[in-house]
Amino acid sequence: MSRDPYDILGVTRNATQKEIRSAFRKLAKKLHPDLNPGDKNTEAKFKEISTAYELLGDSEKRARFDRGEIDMTGGEQAPRNFYREYASASSPGEPFRSGGGFAGFGDADDIFASFFSRRARAPGASPFHAPGRDRHFSMQIDFLDAVKGTKTKVELPEGPALDVQIPTGTRHGQTLRLRGKGEPGSGGGPAGDALISISVRPHRYFTRDGDDIRLELPITLREAVLGGKVRVPTPSGPVDLALPPNSSSGKVLRIRSRGVPRGNAGAGDVYVTLKIVLPDRPDDELASFMKRWASGTTQRPRKDMEG
After folding, report:
1. CA–CA separation, 303 and 307 (whole Å)
2. Ramachandran area for residue 100 (φ above 0: left; ψ -120 to 50: alpha; else beta)
3. What string of pLDDT tens digits covers the 307 residues of the chain?
4. Which of 32, 84, 146, 219 suits 200 as a labelling partner, its CA being 20 to 30 A distant?
5. Strand, coil or helix: what is 149?
6. All domains of the chain, ordered by start, with CATH?
7. Longest Cα pair distance anywhere in the chain, in angstroms?
8. How do beta strands 270-276 and 212-219 pair?
9. b/e string for 123-152 if b means 16 or more Cβ within 10 A?
10. Closest alpha carbon to 240 in 251, 228, 252, 232
11. What is the enclosing helix (H) or strand (E) of 8?
12. How far is residue 224's CA from residue 220's CA, in Å, rounded to a whole number?
C-alpha cells in the first residue's frame, strides 16, 4: 500500500489526533463492510483506511512514520545513510559496490528483512479493526431527579436494559455518554458508546435558572400584612421562611444554598416570588373592613402608569 496515510484519511500532516480520529470515524461509518455486504471494492477501501488509522491514530507510531523510521504498514525502514556506510570500502568509480559482493552486507536474507519486515500478527487475527458505531437514545426524567441525581434504566429496542447514572444537576437537552455500550467493533476494535439525550419533565412549581431555583409562593392577605413564618418547598426539602410584614405581591425573597447542587462548590439559591391570594369565596367581614379602611383610598399603586 503505497499511498500516503494522511491522503487516505483526508487530513493534513499537521492534523491533531482528534481530527485524525474524527476523519477515520466518518469514513468508517460510510465504508464499513457490514453496511456494504459483498462489495469487495468498499471492503478494500475500509481495510486501507483502517491500516492508515492504525498508524496515525497512535501518536508514537505516527511520529516514527513522520521521521521515516517505519513505512505505511509499520515495517521498519532502512536507515537513510544505509549505502553511505559502505561507500568507503567501494572501488574508485563504483562507490556503491563492495569488493566482497554481498559479504560486506552479511547474509542476503538480512538485507531483505531490513526492507520488508512487517509486524507479526496473532494467528487468526482480522487484517483490520475499527471501533463500533455509537448508539443514540433519548430519555425523560423528572425535574427533581435531574437536580438531585439518580440511578435509572434505559430500555433498549433489543438486548438488556442499560443502567444509567443521572449526575447531580443534569440539564434539559444534556447528552450522557456510556462508554463501550454501543455497537461492537470489527476485528477486535473497541465497542462504540451509547449516547443518551436527556429531556427533563417540567415541575408543577419549580423552574430552573442556571443553578438557582425559582418558584411563586401563594400567601394570604393576612400573611402579607402581618408577616410571619411560611413553609416553602425546595428541592432538598421544605424550609421555614421569615416573611416580612407588609409584603406585596411580586416581592422576591432568597433562600441561600437550597438550589441545584454544585458538587464541592455548594449549591445555587432558591428565589421565592410572593403572590397574594384572596379567599375563594367573598368574605363579608373583609369587605366590611375595606369599606371602613379610610387610608386604603389614598393608596396609588398605579401612579407610575398614569398618563
Report:
1. 9
2. alpha
3. 457 899 999 999 999 999 998 998 889 888 877 777 778 888 888 888 888 888 898 888 888 888 888 877 766 665 544 444 434 444 444 443 434 433 333 443 443 343 333 444 444 444 567 888 888 888 999 999 999 999 998 877 667 788 899 999 999 999 999 998 888 888 788 888 989 999 999 999 999 999 999 999 999 999 999 999 999 999 999 999 999 999 999 999 999 999 999 878 889 999 999 999 999 999 999 999 999 988 888 888 888 888 6
4. 219
5. coil
6. 5-116 (1.10.287.110), 135-200 (2.60.260.20), 207-298 (2.60.260.20)
7. 129
8. parallel
9. eeeeebebbbbbbebebebebebbbbebee
10. 232
11. helix 5-9
12. 6
| CA–CA distance, 260 with 271 (Å, rounded to integer) | 12
- The answer to pTM > 0.85 is no
For residue 109, CA distances in Å to 118, 134, 208 come to: 14, 47, 73
